[in-house]
Amino acid sequence: MASPMLLLSATVVLGAVHLISGYSFNNCIEDPYSNGQSFKCIHRKEKNMSALINDLPPSAINLTVCINPLWHIPNKSFVHLPNLQHLRIDDNHLKIIDQYAFQNLHQLKSLNLSFNDISDLNPSLFKDLHNLTFLSLTKNKLKQLPEGIFSTVLNLDTLIMRQNFLTHFSGIAESVSHLMNLRILDLCFNSLTSLSHSNASLPKSLTTLYLCRNNLFTLGCEHSFLRFIQLLDLSYNSRLPTMAFQGVDLRHINYLRLRSTSVKVVEFLNISNVHAGHVDFSGTGLKNDTLLMELCKQLKKKVKEITYLRLSSNGIENLTYYTLSSCPKIKGTLDLSHNQLKKISLNFLNNQTNIKSFSAEHNHLTSLSSCKTQHYFPNLEELSYRYNRILSVGSHAFYCTRNIKMLKLNINTISFLHRNALKGLERLEMLRLDNNLLTDLFNNTFEDNFNLQILNLRNNRISVIFNGTFLNLRNLTTLDLGGNKITHFEQSGLNGLKSLSKFYLDGNNLKQIDTSLYRVFQDTLTVLDLQSNQIRFLTKDIGSPFMNLSKLSDLKLDGQRPHGLTILPRTLFRGLHSLKSLYLTNNNIIYLTPDAFDDLTDLHFLSLDNCCVGVTQLQPGVFKNLRNLRKLIVENMGIQNFTKEVFGNLTQLHTLQLNRNVMEQIQVDALESLPKLHYLDIRNIPLSCTCKNSMLQNWTIHNPNVQVVYLYNLPCPHDAKLKLYNFDTKVCYIDLGEYLFFSTSVVIFLFTVTPLLYVKLYWKMKYSYYVFRSWFSEQWRRLREEEENCKYDAFISYNSSDEQWVMDQLLPNLEGNGSSFKLCLHHRDFELGRDIVDNIVSAVYSSRKTICVVSRDFLRSEWCSLEIQLASYRLFDEHQDVLLLVFLEPITERQVSSYHRMRKVMLKKTYLQWPGSGCTDPTQAQALFWNQLRRAMRTGSRLETEENDKSKGCVTESKEHFETHTSDENYYLLP
């Protein structure tokens, strides 16, 4: 329960930040390190563009809106984002874009509208985009461009309109003719049939034109129409004939693709002015020696040497010694990939000794045999046999290419690599042997490769690393052994790796970390990947296997098979003072010791998501030394407690991903102890919408520095319609303890006082009830009217036991014997059928006086008490002199003291006592009694004090005398 002081402080803080808007967005996420400039709105359910982005700040520069059900962009959708420079709205369902949809985007440089359903564009759509340099309309349904569509985007550099239904090139040419900065125009995958045009010309700046996969059957353009084009792609226009190039100026072409057209390249070279060495001959049907030799002769007529000879995808099955003998000298790359070569001997190159790069990827090669007897190619630096079916590599397989620096043998089926296969490759720097079937490496396999820097052996079947395997690889910096079946290294298996910086061992069968193996590269290793092995610890106390890896900055231990690490030894990371990134994901760790990360003082990134079993109780101080941590991922850990004691020391933390945990409460003081926090993800956490999260609610919606991911969409667990950010917290700011204290005190007081009040004020309360009831029924108004015309001179209140005296004495002396008083009596004047209380009230207020005939029986009567209460009310509260007391018998002070109202009347008013037999002269005393009573009834004021002669047998007493002693001889008393 919050204390009053804490609640007061919260109120002050809330008041201070009331004007600051919350740092979260309905449908977008700010990139954590973009400083309010980059946002991604991906995979949301919102169909309205305005609702999707209306809460983004004007500082936004980069905006990505992808994979949403958007179909319409209304006018002025981005006016609140005037600084936007890069906008992606791809892979949605856009059909309609209003005329002024991009109004006010004067700073926009790139716009991507790819993969939508746009069929029409408004001519004024890009009116405000004066700085636009990149526009992509890929994969839409455009059939034509409206006139003047690009009239205002004069800075456009790249225009991509591939995968549409464009049919008329003339309209396209007219639309781009004035774009003097346009360099790249991509029109592939359309329905163009020709390049015919009216008077329009392509801008001189246009150097790259992609026209692949159209239906071109002719170029149909003027001689100089393509004179400035440098890259022209006409591939996959199967109907395009050779004669289409007759008279077309192609002198500036640096790269021309004619793949899968009807062009006969030899004839094309005869009629065209294109530079022969700039034509890509891939996919042009040159599938045998005859055609290749004819091409070479034609090329030699045109040029003496060429940089690139691209012959891929021609269906070539065999190459002979004479195939390329007639070709000009190749000083760069020969590409024979995507053919049907089954075997290869570099002798076919014959005199092509200047070649630098040779590729035979995607063929059907099954083996590489020795080439010691073949020509030597001293200038060859890159050799690639990727994507073949090579099973074996023989001895000295690359001896004729001893100067190569890059060798790619990956993605084959190599199961046998001769121990001398790589002999002579002393200049080799990168070797790719990944994705093969190698099982063994020998101690002399790499003995000549002492300049090797990168060795990739990933995804083979190697199970053991024998002694001396890498002994000569003193310059190796990257070794990738991931995805093998390695169970252990022999004692000297890693010797020689004195420069190793990155070591990948993920996806193997290692069961322990052998500290002795890493002594060779302990001063050089920066990256060690051990994820997805079988490492497991049986005790919390072991020696640290990483103690001497002083420069290690990246360590991956995530996903150990089959059950994870389960136990994380308290000293496992000892000595890793330089570690920057640590991955422990998917490890089913039972318990994290408080000192597990104590030595990781320079750690910047820690990933613990899915690393623990069930519910996790993080121990206080577990992150106490991670003061340099920037990003912490603790997703799906079963965390129950997010407290300052656990997370309070992360003073440099920028990004915190807490989603998919089980805590019902997040303590705000823990969040406030993270001063550099900028990004907080608490999705899929069952945070209760109760008072214990009221402070969290206030913190999230009023904190200007921390982005809470999708805050406004976080639901309450008990009701998805309610949201965490706006559940009702009014009751939370009431100090319930104080209210409960006062309410309990009142209840106790009432239980204590009520019985006393009941005894003392029973009749007053009862009388008040009846008065209230009379007021409620407007009885008072009627009684007031009756009082002005009183029906009776006096209402006689008496007990039934005294009725005889009333009938024999009172009634004859006041209504008879010449007296003119009219009295109201119960039995005679009460209205039949009427409530008795109403009759009493009516009698009191219909009479000028009320005469109470007091006896001991009268005092015990409830109805008599009610009647004297009503009369005394008029006496004390309404100040009406209406009450007369007549005592029929002597009553002591002790007997009267129980009747507070009665005693109060006796102290204030004159009262009469009926003369008893004790008087000297009863007849004279009774006569005086009746005279005094009649006199009191006639006047509206108090009776005056009179003294009577003692000789008459009567004694005059004052009120003070009555209070001290009462004589039985008193037959009346005056004030």
Quick description:
With 975 residues, the chain is α/β, with parallel strands linked by helices. It has 19 helices and 44 strands.
Folded structure, characterized:
Helix 9 crosses helix 15. The chain is α/β, with parallel strands linked by helices and 975 residues long. Among the domains are: 104 residues, Alpha-Beta Horseshoe (Leucine-rich repeat, LRR (right-handed beta-alpha superhelix)); 196 residues, 3-Layer(aba) Sandwich (Rossmann fold), CATH 3.40.50.10140. Helices cover 20% and strands 15% of the residues. It has a 17-stranded parallel sheet, with no helix packed on it. It has a twelve-stranded mixed sheet with strand order 1-2-3-5-7-8-9-10-11-12-13-14, with no helix packed on it. Its main location: membrane. Keywords: Glycoprotein, Immunity, Inflammatory response, Innate immunity, Leucine-rich repeat, Membrane, Receptor, Repeat, Signal, Transmembrane, Transmembrane helix.
